[in-house]
Amino acid sequence: MTTAMPARGHHTAPVFDPKEPRMLLRFFEDLEYLFTTLATAPTNELKKRHAVRYAPIDVADMWDQLPSYADATKTYEEWREEVKAFYPTADANRKYTLQDLDLLIGERSRLGISTAADLGDYYREFFKITEFLRSRQRLSTSEIARTFYKPFTPTLWQSVHSRLQLKYPDHNPDDFWPLRHILDAAHYVLHGTRVDAPAQGIPAAATTSTALPPGTIKTEDFTSLIETVTRTIAQAFATSANMAFANAQPQTSRVSNIANANPNTTSEVVTTAENSGT
User: Fold this and answer.
1) What is the DSSP secondary structure assignment for residue 210, as one 8-state letter?
2) Could you give the angle at the alpha carbon of 52 between the alpha carbons of 47 and 58, nearest 5°?
3) Where along the chain do its domains lie?
4) Distance between CA 149 and CA 119 in Å, rounded?
5) Residue 89 has what DSSP assignment?
6) Which pTM was predicted?
7) Chain centre to alpha carbon of residue 163
8) 3-state secondary structure at position 125
9) What DSSP character marks residue 196?
């Protein structure tokens, strides 16, 4: 037994952070435990004063303004209940809500579940919230199981579902999988691997290129240059051959072509050709 309460800031002193209202219940539990260690039970007035002394200064300024704080006819317990009214989420019956569950699923969907460690982090938070809601008849066991896999990616859920079908071939398709079975299957799938990692033995596509020294010609650029030069030379040879062929045609062929193009000039062309022969 002791005769004095610990000083504010001492490692055994109760702590309350107003940013975490759920700490309020723990704060009063720790405070009241210290009361039991005193050799002499404190009065209602001393209990109130100790509680305010351990609270942060801004919080203390609010707590000691309550009428029940200065009213000697009000007990410590009555004053404590008025303090709790400032923090609705500190109510033991409202520790977690369905909104907390939705926030958890949304956050985990954003972060993803790629490793067994990720799954463990998610399951611990999920269990804490859903078990409280189940104990308050706000969620059923089947609803909890159907909710658990929502943050899973389609790839992960397909792998988990395949594992469940393989392990429990006689499972009734009308019944959803129990939470424990889903968790075990997910652990099996994620054990020592990442679902979103590239398959082993298949190198991931390169996303960066290796820098070359100044003045160096890339192999693909050199090959393209050779192809362009070759194509240009081939076109030049083809053009030259066509021109040579055209110049080598017999004159009679050209005359025939002209005659065919204009029949009215046939006799004139023939006469001219004969005179030239003479």
Assistant:
1) -
2) 170
3) 23-91, 98-190, 219-264
4) 10
5) G
6) 0.56
7) 24
8) helix
9) T
Residue in this structure with the two tokens 């008849």, named with its chain if needed: 137
23 is written with which tokens? 């700490």
Single-letter amino acid code for the residue at 61: D
Token pair of 223, please?
């090959």
**Which of 110, 108, 113, 55 is closest to 86 using CA atoms?**
55
Other Cβ atoms less than 10 A from the Cβ of 126: the count is 22
Q: Which helix (H) or strand (E) holds 237?
A: helix 219-247
Cα-based distances in Å from 123 to 137, 145, 188: 20, 12, 15
Q: Are 15 and 54 in contact (CB under 8 A)?
A: yes
In sequence order, the 6+-apart residues with CB closer than 8 A to the CB of 95 are 22, 89, 132
First CA to last CA distance, the chain: 152
SS3 at position 270: helix
| AA letter at 164 | L
pLDDT in tens, the chain (278 residues): 788 999 999 999 999 999 998 899 999 999 999 999 998 999 999 999 999 999 999 999 999 999 999 999 999 999 999 999 999 888 877 888 999 999 999 999 999 999 999 999 999 999 999 999 999 999 999 999 999 999 999 999 999 999 999 999 999 988 999 999 999 999 999 986 654 544 333 334 434 444 444 444 455 555 566 666 566 666 665 566 556 555 555 544 444 444 454 555 444 444 444 444 44
Token pair for residue 166? 């393989």
* Residue whose entry in the numeric block shows the structure tokens 């046939």: 266
Instruction: Please list the alpha-helical segments (H only) found in 112-170.
Output: 116-135, 141-148, 154-167
- Those residues with Cβ within 8 angstroms of residue 86's Cβ, 6 or more apart along the chain or in another chain: 62
